[in-house]
Design a protein that fits this description.
Number of helices: 8
CATH topology: Rossmann fold
Radius of gyration: 22 Å
Strand order of the largest sheet: 1-2-4-3-5-8-9-10
Strand content: 15-25%
Largest sheet: 8 strands, mixed
CATH architecture: 3-Layer(aba) Sandwich
Shape: globular
CATH class: Alpha Beta
Length: 309
């Protein structure tokens, strides 16, 4: 009996091994085509939403190459028109989505700010400058529909982390935005651990930038890469709040320092903060160590309150 079963078991084991190898290969191919969302740090990208918030989900702001582009809006649900935070998620331009909001940004809803989290095409879906075009369109849409959602479009903040911070920086340093007769005025940009020169990235971050552009970033000079915010800096840019970790090995601190220097050289107001012990996308960016200073910055520019520079 043993002698009869053994060859059968060996054959079944071989078949199972082949099946597993084929499945693993198919998963690898799929992941190269379409990255799987990985929720880092457990609750990290599932923020607590203030109880009083009014939520408007999956609002179409445009159709881009046949694909419906959507955003979510969170408002305090009371009072006068609210300053607007446009949140741009992280994810190396190739993963995550509009549901991925840092807690520090979501907490501003309980402080009287509206927040719009915008989906943009990931790098396997569209190459640059599709993302910039979409975000500009979303901001224009928000300006045109401000009255419907109780938004003050003349007090708009663009805020993002990592890839989202990069996108926020490009939007903030490029052209002014208007929607018909309803101006959507960007009064501040908040950039957390954001790259300013894609050619300076290395390893996986460089590969992600290459996927975004569709070519090697070093093929252009540093300021000529069309996705570099360095390229667009001018005197009329809104104030920037730059927060970076001193132990960031994904986006070197030198990138943030250089971006600050170029902004200041053009006469742009910059609040520059470095946390020496923080790493890339450090969850402590959302902590009481960082947020009060940032909130004073926002209140000064959006609400006219005295605050930090």
């Amino acid at each position: 009996m043993h002698k009869v079963l053994m060859p059968v078991l060996i054959r079944l084991g071989s078949i199972l091994l082949i099946v597993l190898i084929c499945v693993a290969g198919a998963v690898a191919v799929y992941m190269n085509r379409k990255p799987i969302l990985i929720w880092a740090s457990g609750h990290r990208y599932r923020p607590r939403i203030p109880a009083q918030a009014q939520i408007f989900r999956d609002i179409e702001y445009t159709v881009f190459n046949g694909r419906s582009m959507r955003l979510d809006i969170y408002t305090p649900g009371r009072g006068n028109p609210h300053p607007l935070i446009v949140w741009l998620h992280s994810g190396a331009w190739k993963t995550l989505d509009k549901s991925c909001i840092e807690q520090g940004a979501m907490d501003q809803v309980s402080r009287g700010y509206a927040l719009a989290s915008v989906d943009y095409s990931l790098s396997y879906e569209e190459k640059w400058p599709a993302q910039l075009q979409q975000i500009r369109t979303a901001i224009q849409w928000l300006g045109a529909n401000a009255a419907t959602y109780g938004i003050n479009p003349a007090a708009t903040v663009i805020w993002g982390m990592s890839a989202g911070g990069h996108l926020a920086s490009v939007v903030g340093t490029s052209a002014d935005l208007e929607s018909g007769n309803r101006p959507c005025r960007i009064v501040a940009v908040v950039a957390w651990c954001a790259p300013s020169d894609l050619a300076e990235l290395s390893g996986g971050a460089y590969a992600s930038a290459r996927q975004l552009l569709g070519y090697e970033p070093e093929a252009d000079s540093e300021k000529e890469i069309p996705a570099n915010p360095l390229r667009y800096i001018s005197r009329g840019d809104p104030p920037f709040y730059i927060l970076h970790g001193g132990k960031d090995t994904v986006v070197p601190i030198a990138s943030a320092v250089r971006f600050r220097d170029e902004l200041e050289k053009a006469g742009v107001t910059v609040a520059f903060r470095v946390r020496d012990q923080y790493v890339h996308e450090d969850i402590r960016f959302n902590s009481a160590e960082c947020m009060p200073d940032l909130e004073r910055f926002l209140d000064r520019l959006c609400l006219g309150k005295a605050g930090s520079q």
